[in-house]
């Protein structure tokens, strides 16, 4: 049985390992232990912010998935709140078993509970399987996003 909860500092090695376990993450993450200080500092900032929710999917004692939701206030759409879902990952040995779907459905429910009018996410252009997955959940590729590394 999969349950969801707010991530704890002790979950960080599992979360970072999932972030690093794909072709894109392998080039930008470092899952070696002890974790780089940046991960710990980022976790502490996320955990202290009431508009951030770093969550894990757990089965028994095993962390099998993670995602982050940022709750954004905005003036557009008559002052609507929106939920931004990021960093959706499922442990490699548990992929294609429905955990990702459960996680995103849970995240959408969290956004509804916070009175968000919109849920949005981004995914890298190269992730064709992810595009199909999000479309199957009712998301539409309605916008073009840009990023700039600093």
Which features would summarize this protein structure in a list?
globular; 5 strands; 27% strand; 6 helices; single chain; 150 residues; alpha+beta; 5-stranded mixed sheet
Care to describe what's here?
By secondary structure, the protein is an alpha+beta fold. Helix content is 35%, strand content 27%. The chain contains six helices and five strands. The longest helix has 15 residues, at 99-113. It is globular, with a radius of gyration of 15 Å. The mean pLDDT is 94.
Low-confidence stretches: none
| Tally of contiguous helical segments | 6
Which overall shape is indicated by the principal axes computed on the Cα atoms?
Answer: globular
* Main sheet attributes: strand count, strand direction, barrel closure: 5 strands, mixed
Query: What is the gyration radius calculated from CA atoms?
Result: 15 Å
First-last Cα distance: 41 Å
Q: What integer is the average pLDDT?
A: 94
User: Secondary-structure element sequence?
Assistant: EHHHEEHEHEH
The share of residues in extended strands comes to 25-35%
- Helical content stands at 25-40%
Structural class label: alpha+beta
Order of strands, widest sheet: 1-2-3-4-5
What is the strand tally?
A: 5
